[in-house]
Amino acid sequence: MPERPDLEYVVPILSERLVGRGVASAEALNPVVMRVAVLGDGPSQLLGASVEAVTRRAHFVVFTLSGELDLVVHPMLAGRFELQEGSARRRKDTAFVLGIGDGQELRYRDDVQMGKVYIVPRVDADRVIPGFASVGIDVLSRAFTFKAFSALARQRRDQVKVFLMDKSALDALGNAYADEVLFEAGLHPKARVRELSEEQLEGLHKAIKAVLRQARDTIARRQPELSEKVRDFLKVRNRKGQPCPRCGTKIRAAGVHGHDAFFCPTCQPDVKGRGFVDWRKLKR
User: Helix or strand or coil: residue 213?
Assistant: First the structure.
Protein backbone atom coordinates (compact mmCIF):
# COMPACT_ATOMS: atom_id res chain seq x y z
CA MET A 1 0.00 0.00 0.00
CA PRO A 2 1.13 3.60 -0.32
CA GLU A 3 2.56 4.37 3.10
CA ARG A 4 3.38 7.67 4.72
CA PRO A 5 6.61 8.38 2.78
CA ASP A 6 4.79 7.64 -0.48
CA LEU A 7 1.86 9.86 0.40
CA GLU A 8 4.11 12.71 1.53
CA TYR A 9 5.46 12.71 -2.01
CA VAL A 10 2.16 12.17 -3.83
CA VAL A 11 -0.16 14.49 -1.89
CA PRO A 12 1.75 17.76 -2.49
CA ILE A 13 1.87 16.99 -6.22
CA LEU A 14 -1.85 16.32 -6.30
CA SER A 15 -2.44 19.52 -4.36
CA GLU A 16 -0.35 21.59 -6.76
CA ARG A 17 -2.04 20.11 -9.81
CA LEU A 18 -5.66 19.98 -8.60
CA VAL A 19 -6.41 22.81 -6.16
CA GLY A 20 -8.56 25.40 -7.83
CA ARG A 21 -9.65 23.04 -10.60
CA GLY A 22 -13.28 22.19 -11.22
CA VAL A 23 -14.76 18.70 -11.39
CA ALA A 24 -15.96 18.23 -14.96
CA SER A 25 -16.79 14.53 -14.70
CA ALA A 26 -16.74 11.66 -12.21
CA GLU A 27 -16.99 8.00 -13.09
CA ALA A 28 -16.85 4.79 -11.05
CA LEU A 29 -15.39 2.11 -13.32
CA ASN A 30 -15.22 -0.44 -10.53
CA PRO A 31 -18.15 -0.05 -8.12
CA VAL A 32 -16.51 -2.53 -5.72
CA VAL A 33 -14.24 0.21 -4.38
CA MET A 34 -17.00 2.80 -3.98
CA ARG A 35 -18.51 3.81 -0.67
CA VAL A 36 -21.19 6.46 -1.10
CA ALA A 37 -22.83 8.06 1.93
CA VAL A 38 -25.36 10.17 0.03
CA LEU A 39 -28.61 9.36 -1.72
CA GLY A 40 -28.55 8.93 -5.47
CA ASP A 41 -25.60 8.61 -7.81
CA GLY A 42 -22.62 9.72 -5.74
CA PRO A 43 -20.11 10.51 -8.50
CA SER A 44 -22.55 12.71 -10.41
CA GLN A 45 -23.04 14.84 -7.30
CA LEU A 46 -19.40 15.92 -7.45
CA LEU A 47 -19.91 17.68 -10.79
CA GLY A 48 -19.40 21.42 -10.67
CA ALA A 49 -17.48 21.36 -7.39
CA SER A 50 -13.92 22.65 -7.25
CA VAL A 51 -10.97 21.17 -5.41
CA GLU A 52 -10.13 23.36 -2.41
CA ALA A 53 -7.43 21.20 -0.80
CA VAL A 54 -5.68 17.83 -1.02
CA THR A 55 -4.35 16.55 2.28
CA ARG A 56 -3.14 13.38 3.98
CA ARG A 57 -4.88 12.02 7.06
CA ALA A 58 -3.00 8.92 8.21
CA HIS A 59 -3.23 6.67 5.12
CA PHE A 60 -6.24 8.49 3.66
CA VAL A 61 -6.01 11.06 0.88
CA VAL A 62 -8.65 13.75 1.39
CA PHE A 63 -9.91 15.84 -1.52
CA THR A 64 -11.75 18.76 0.08
CA LEU A 65 -14.32 20.03 -2.40
CA SER A 66 -16.44 23.16 -2.50
CA GLY A 67 -19.94 22.48 -1.29
CA GLU A 68 -20.92 19.83 1.22
CA LEU A 69 -19.32 16.66 -0.17
CA ASP A 70 -15.73 15.44 0.03
CA LEU A 71 -13.87 12.68 -1.77
CA VAL A 72 -11.75 10.50 0.52
CA VAL A 73 -9.55 7.71 -0.79
CA HIS A 74 -8.02 4.92 1.26
CA PRO A 75 -5.58 3.18 -1.12
CA MET A 76 -5.13 0.12 1.11
CA LEU A 77 -2.94 -2.63 -0.39
CA ALA A 78 -2.48 -1.65 -4.03
CA GLY A 79 -4.18 1.68 -4.69
CA ARG A 80 -2.35 4.35 -6.65
CA PHE A 81 -3.02 7.62 -8.44
CA GLU A 82 -2.37 8.87 -11.95
CA LEU A 83 -2.79 12.24 -13.60
CA GLN A 84 -3.37 11.72 -17.32
CA GLU A 85 -4.77 13.33 -20.40
CA GLY A 86 -8.34 12.14 -20.86
CA SER A 87 -7.40 10.82 -24.29
CA ALA A 88 -4.75 8.49 -22.84
CA ARG A 89 -5.64 4.82 -22.58
CA ARG A 90 -7.05 3.82 -19.22
CA ARG A 91 -5.39 0.83 -17.60
CA LYS A 92 -7.52 -2.19 -16.75
CA ASP A 93 -7.13 -1.58 -13.01
CA THR A 94 -8.56 1.95 -13.19
CA ALA A 95 -11.35 2.05 -10.60
CA PHE A 96 -12.39 5.70 -10.38
CA VAL A 97 -11.86 8.72 -12.62
CA LEU A 98 -12.28 12.39 -11.83
CA GLY A 99 -12.27 14.71 -14.84
CA ILE A 100 -10.68 17.99 -13.77
CA GLY A 101 -11.09 20.14 -16.82
CA ASP A 102 -8.81 20.92 -19.78
CA GLY A 103 -9.00 17.26 -20.72
CA GLN A 104 -7.09 16.11 -17.60
CA GLU A 105 -8.11 13.17 -15.43
CA LEU A 106 -7.23 12.05 -11.94
CA ARG A 107 -7.33 8.27 -12.03
CA TYR A 108 -7.41 5.98 -9.03
CA ARG A 109 -6.09 2.51 -9.86
CA ASP A 110 -6.44 -0.65 -7.77
CA ASP A 111 -5.67 -4.07 -9.23
CA VAL A 112 -6.77 -6.02 -6.13
CA GLN A 113 -9.91 -3.97 -5.38
CA MET A 114 -9.15 -3.56 -1.69
CA GLY A 115 -8.98 0.22 -1.60
CA LYS A 116 -11.97 2.42 -0.88
CA VAL A 117 -13.23 5.62 -2.50
CA TYR A 118 -15.64 7.48 -0.23
CA ILE A 119 -18.06 10.20 -1.29
CA VAL A 120 -19.32 11.65 1.95
CA PRO A 121 -20.85 14.76 3.45
CA ARG A 122 -17.95 16.55 5.09
CA VAL A 123 -19.72 16.72 8.44
CA ASP A 124 -20.20 12.94 8.46
CA ALA A 125 -16.70 11.81 7.45
CA ASP A 126 -15.54 10.96 10.97
CA ARG A 127 -18.67 8.93 11.59
CA VAL A 128 -19.00 6.95 8.37
CA ILE A 129 -15.40 6.25 7.31
CA PRO A 130 -13.79 3.45 9.39
CA GLY A 131 -10.56 4.57 11.02
CA PHE A 132 -10.88 8.17 9.85
CA ALA A 133 -11.79 9.79 13.16
CA SER A 134 -9.06 8.26 15.31
CA VAL A 135 -5.59 9.28 14.16
CA GLY A 136 -2.66 9.06 16.54
CA ILE A 137 0.30 11.28 17.21
CA ASP A 138 2.22 12.51 14.17
CA VAL A 139 5.54 10.66 14.37
CA LEU A 140 7.37 13.34 12.35
CA SER A 141 6.09 16.25 14.42
CA ARG A 142 7.58 17.97 17.45
CA ALA A 143 4.81 16.42 19.52
CA PHE A 144 6.38 12.98 18.99
CA THR A 145 8.67 13.18 21.98
CA PHE A 146 10.05 10.13 23.70
CA LYS A 147 7.91 10.97 26.74
CA ALA A 148 4.74 10.89 24.60
CA PHE A 149 5.81 7.72 22.81
CA SER A 150 6.73 5.95 26.02
CA ALA A 151 3.36 6.84 27.58
CA LEU A 152 1.60 5.24 24.60
CA ALA A 153 3.81 2.15 24.67
CA ARG A 154 3.29 1.53 28.36
CA GLN A 155 -0.43 1.12 27.73
CA ARG A 156 0.10 -1.70 25.22
CA ARG A 157 0.02 -5.45 25.77
CA ASP A 158 0.30 -6.53 22.14
CA GLN A 159 3.17 -7.31 19.79
CA VAL A 160 5.40 -4.43 18.82
CA LYS A 161 4.60 -4.60 15.10
CA VAL A 162 0.88 -4.44 15.86
CA PHE A 163 1.49 -1.36 18.00
CA LEU A 164 3.50 0.37 15.26
CA MET A 165 0.74 -0.22 12.70
CA ASP A 166 -2.08 1.07 14.91
CA LYS A 167 -3.07 4.34 13.20
CA SER A 168 -5.11 5.39 16.22
CA ALA A 169 -1.87 5.44 18.21
CA LEU A 170 0.75 6.52 15.67
CA ASP A 171 0.45 8.54 12.46
CA ALA A 172 1.53 6.55 10.62
CA LEU A 173 3.31 3.29 9.77
CA GLY A 174 2.20 0.50 7.47
CA ASN A 175 3.45 -3.01 6.94
CA ALA A 176 6.62 -2.22 5.00
CA TYR A 177 7.98 0.58 7.15
CA ALA A 178 7.08 -1.17 10.40
CA ASP A 179 9.46 -3.94 9.30
CA GLU A 180 12.16 -1.39 8.45
CA VAL A 181 11.75 0.41 11.78
CA LEU A 182 12.00 -2.85 13.73
CA PHE A 183 15.12 -3.85 11.82
CA GLU A 184 16.69 -0.46 12.54
CA ALA A 185 15.81 -0.82 16.23
CA GLY A 186 16.94 -4.47 16.48
CA LEU A 187 13.54 -5.68 17.66
CA HIS A 188 11.79 -8.89 16.70
CA PRO A 189 8.31 -8.13 15.24
CA LYS A 190 6.66 -10.50 17.74
CA ALA A 191 8.27 -8.96 20.80
CA ARG A 192 5.69 -7.81 23.33
CA VAL A 193 5.65 -4.07 23.93
CA ARG A 194 5.33 -4.59 27.68
CA GLU A 195 8.61 -6.53 27.69
CA LEU A 196 10.65 -3.72 26.15
CA SER A 197 13.07 -1.85 28.36
CA GLU A 198 13.43 1.92 28.48
CA GLU A 199 16.54 1.61 26.32
CA GLN A 200 14.69 -0.48 23.76
CA LEU A 201 11.84 2.02 23.60
CA GLU A 202 14.32 4.86 23.12
CA GLY A 203 15.89 2.96 20.25
CA LEU A 204 12.48 2.30 18.72
CA HIS A 205 11.48 5.96 19.02
CA LYS A 206 14.65 7.07 17.24
CA ALA A 207 14.24 4.39 14.56
CA ILE A 208 10.70 5.52 13.69
CA LYS A 209 11.84 9.06 13.00
CA ALA A 210 15.05 8.08 11.22
CA VAL A 211 13.51 5.46 8.91
CA LEU A 212 10.52 7.56 7.84
CA ARG A 213 12.60 10.68 7.25
CA GLN A 214 15.15 8.77 5.22
CA ALA A 215 12.40 7.12 3.15
CA ARG A 216 10.61 10.43 2.60
CA ASP A 217 13.81 12.12 1.46
CA THR A 218 14.81 9.21 -0.78
CA ILE A 219 11.47 9.17 -2.58
CA ALA A 220 11.48 12.95 -3.01
CA ARG A 221 14.99 12.80 -4.47
CA ARG A 222 14.10 9.98 -6.87
CA GLN A 223 10.93 11.76 -8.12
CA PRO A 224 9.05 8.66 -9.32
CA GLU A 225 5.82 8.68 -11.28
CA LEU A 226 2.78 9.15 -9.04
CA SER A 227 1.69 5.54 -9.58
CA GLU A 228 5.13 4.09 -8.77
CA LYS A 229 5.99 2.83 -5.29
CA VAL A 230 9.73 3.10 -4.70
CA ARG A 231 10.78 0.34 -2.32
CA ASP A 232 14.08 -0.94 -3.70
CA PHE A 233 16.04 0.82 -0.95
CA LEU A 234 14.30 -1.06 1.88
CA LYS A 235 16.59 -3.37 3.84
CA VAL A 236 14.39 -6.29 4.90
CA ARG A 237 10.89 -5.84 3.50
CA ASN A 238 10.09 -8.52 0.89
CA ARG A 239 13.67 -9.80 1.03
CA LYS A 240 13.03 -13.28 2.40
CA GLY A 241 16.03 -15.53 1.78
CA GLN A 242 18.33 -12.66 0.90
CA PRO A 243 21.33 -11.83 3.10
CA CYS A 244 20.87 -9.33 5.89
CA PRO A 245 22.71 -6.11 4.98
CA ARG A 246 24.26 -6.05 8.46
CA CYS A 247 25.25 -9.62 9.26
CA GLY A 248 24.59 -11.73 6.18
CA THR A 249 22.03 -14.03 7.81
CA LYS A 250 19.13 -14.91 5.53
CA ILE A 251 16.08 -12.71 6.03
CA ARG A 252 13.05 -14.61 7.30
CA ALA A 253 9.30 -14.01 7.17
CA ALA A 254 6.64 -14.64 9.80
CA GLY A 255 2.97 -13.94 10.37
CA VAL A 256 2.05 -11.24 12.86
CA HIS A 257 -1.64 -10.73 13.59
CA GLY A 258 -2.69 -11.32 9.99
CA HIS A 259 0.24 -9.45 8.46
CA ASP A 260 3.54 -10.73 7.13
CA ALA A 261 6.75 -9.54 8.74
CA PHE A 262 10.31 -9.68 7.40
CA PHE A 263 13.23 -9.69 9.80
CA CYS A 264 16.76 -10.86 10.45
CA PRO A 265 16.82 -13.64 13.07
CA THR A 266 20.34 -12.65 14.15
CA CYS A 267 19.91 -8.88 14.35
CA GLN A 268 16.36 -9.19 15.73
CA PRO A 269 16.51 -12.24 18.04
CA ASP A 270 13.28 -13.84 19.20
CA VAL A 271 14.28 -14.25 22.83
CA LYS A 272 12.04 -12.90 25.56
CA GLY A 273 13.50 -9.70 26.92
CA ARG A 274 16.32 -9.71 24.35
CA GLY A 275 14.69 -8.14 21.30
CA PHE A 276 17.28 -5.35 21.48
CA VAL A 277 20.69 -5.82 19.88
CA ASP A 278 23.73 -4.24 21.52
CA TRP A 279 25.88 -3.71 18.44
CA ARG A 280 28.90 -2.80 20.56
CA LYS A 281 28.95 -6.32 22.03
CA LEU A 282 28.43 -7.99 18.66
CA LYS A 283 31.46 -6.18 17.21
CA ARG A 284 33.82 -7.53 19.87
Answer: helix
